[in-house]
Structures are given as C-alpha cells and as structure tokens.
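Hey, quick one: can you model this chain's 3D structure?
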Amino acid sequence: MQPKAILFDRDGTLMYDLPPRAGPSDVVLMPGIALALARLRAARIRTAVVSNQCGVGEGTLDIRRMHAINRRIDDLAGPMDGWFVCLHATHANCNCRKPRPGLIHRAAEKLGVEARDCVVIGDIASDMEAARAAGARAIMIPNESTLAHEIVAAPEVAFDMLEAVEWLVDVAYV
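Sure thing. Here's the predicted structure for all 174 residues.
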C-alpha cells in the first residue's frame, strides 16, 4: 500500500550538508531529488520536511538564512507541502527534536494523515528512531557521513532517493 505522506530529513537527505556560514546559493540537491519529488507529486503523495536545526537555538544559524535555504530547496525541487523544523538547541529537552517523534506527529497532523501512513526518509539513526517512535515506516539513504552501525540498524536502506521512491510508488516515471 502506498504511503499517504513522505517526510524527508533535510541535511544529507534532500541536500548536501552546508558549512556553517553557507546560504541559499550554496544549496546542492542530492542526486535524484527533483525527479523523485515529481514522481511523488504525480502519485498524489504528500511531501514534507522534518528537520532539526539546532543552530537557530544555539545562535549559530540565523532563522532568516534557514528559511531562505528551505525556499531554495523548494525552488530547485518543487514546493513541499510543509516544513516542520525543531529550532531548539541540542541540549533542549523538547519533544520535537529527532529522535523524538514530535516533528513527525506535527507533520502528519498538519498534512491530515496518520503517522502510521507516513514514511520518513533520512540519513542517520535519529531519523530512523523518530520514525519508529511515531509509528511511521523508515527508510535510510546513507551518505558519506552515515555511520556503519546506523546502516546495519536501519529497518530499510535504499541506495538513493529514486530507489526509495520506486519502493513506495506504483506509477510510471514522470
């Protein structure tokens, strides 16, 4: 059965990680992102981002720059149905910071779906743990920063975004 929504991690999943002072002009999408998102839209599957952005809470990332980077991703890959971001510092005891499930629950609610009808796609263990805690399916797409033990522990691992979407969508490529 097709999921009703796909919730993506941002850094290392949709786009390459950026250095601390980078801006929207530095955004480079990971391979296959635009085509994969077009395919999900053609299948009428909702898309959103669930992202920890602790730099805002820690004072190392300006919130306007974060929003500009998010808009740049929308410009390059097409608009998401929602952006759900934890702005708290790493040490904050919030429910929204992955690996806790708060962002996933909030995204599912705003998208009008149940968390169990969502798939979370990310590149590290905290993405997988947040999905599990929320009752969502999880798919890891490892990159050069993903640790070997995280890959082994992931419930599902895809080579790239197009492969992950192939598993989830039952329509021809657009």
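One thing worth noting: The chain has seven helices and five strands.
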